[in-house]
């Protein structure tokens, strides 16, 4: 990045030479990355390419990676995973407040639940929520902590296609209102290009493609101009042979997530 540009956008996250290996197998191979404060970035890559490993490193959850290079991240970080990780023995509001006390925290917790569309469900138990509602509650739990950086690891990966699209709208609205820096890990090319302003492709331990998505929001899956970005990302992911299924073919695209190659072998739990 040019020096003057660096002065304009304070990076929220800065990685220099970040490396991580497991059993002699290098997963992150000297990653250099700046995430400017307030940017919405998506991270794509095949299963096993190291997306969760990178996210865990940025979250400060991986102590071994820390010494490998330079890693700077904000102190107020929230992480949302594919499963909501709500505690089943705590009611929804108590899950959202976990570790926060006092009337003011409770007021913020209720406000966060209202923001994600769960007003009135404060006293529900997690097992009374649908998958989408549970992820809404997980987002509320993140929001209430007013994170400078929101890390999301396949947060909508277990949801049906229609719920996922509703959650996309919600996440983008929350981002517009609160403006945390976001790093969203996903397998879903359409999810990445509809939500993010910048999409990174992780390939062989490096950032293989760093693409700015220069289209206004809210974006539609139907926008034919997103097709060019989709094509570039699919090419970077090595799946150009699926062009006919993913091109601008006049369908609304809402079912695309289901007819593209799936990479779920290692998608469950990044812990
Ligand atoms: N704790 C661990 N111990 C050993 N190997 C690990 C560990 N965590 C990750 N790996 C390995 O590192 C590689 C990258 O895993 P990672 O979970 O980061 O990939 P990913 O891109 O997030 O995959 P997916 O999209 O399937 O979730 C994989 O080969 C995985 O087996």
Automatic annotation (TrEMBL):
Residues 13-229 form the ABC transporter domain. The keyword Glycosyltransferase does not apply. The keyword Plastid does not apply. Residues 240-271 have a biased composition (Basic and acidic residues). This is Sulfonate transport system ATP-binding protein. PANTHER family: ALIPHATIC SULFONATES IMPORT ATP-BINDING PROTEIN SSUB, TAURINE IMPORT ATP-BINDING PROTEIN-RELATED. GO terms for molecular function: ATP binding. Keywords: ATP-binding, Cell membrane, Membrane, Nucleotide-binding, Translocase, Transport. Residues 238-271 are annotated as: Disordered.
């Amino acid at each position: 990045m040019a020096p003057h540009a660096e002065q304009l956008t304070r990076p929220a996250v800065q990685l220099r030479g970040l490396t991580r290996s497991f059993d002699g197998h290098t997963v992150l191979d000297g990653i250099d990355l700046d995430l400017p404060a307030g940017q919405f970035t998506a991270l794509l890559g095949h299963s096993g390419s190291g997306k969760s490993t990178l996210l865990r490193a940025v979250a400060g959850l991986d102590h071994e990676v820390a010494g490998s290079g330079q890693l700077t991240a904000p102190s107020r970080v929230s992480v949302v995973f594919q499963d909501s990780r709500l505690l089943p023995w705590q009611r929804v509001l108590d899950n959202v407040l976990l570790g926060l006390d006092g009337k003011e925290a409770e007021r913020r917790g209720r406000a966060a639940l209202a923001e994600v569309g769960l007003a009135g469900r404060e006293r529900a138990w997690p097992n009374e929520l649908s998958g989408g509602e549970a992820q809404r509650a997980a987002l509320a739990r993140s929001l209430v902590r007013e994170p400078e950086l929101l890390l999301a690891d396949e947060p909508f990966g277990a949801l049906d296609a229609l719920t996922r699209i509703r959650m996309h709208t919600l996440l983008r609205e929350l981002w517009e209102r609160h403006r945390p820096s976001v790093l969203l890990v996903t397998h879903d090319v359409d999810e990445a290009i509809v939500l993010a302003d910048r999409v990174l492709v992780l390939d062989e331990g490096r950032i293989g493609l760093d693409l700015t998505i220069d289209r206004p929001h809210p974006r539609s899956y139907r926008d034919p101009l997103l097709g060019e970005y989709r094509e570039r990302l699919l090419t970077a992911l090595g799946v150009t042979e699926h062009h006919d299924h993913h091109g601008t073919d006049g369908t609304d695209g809402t079912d695309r997530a289901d007819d593209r190659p799936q990479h779920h072998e290692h998608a469950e739990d990044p812990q």
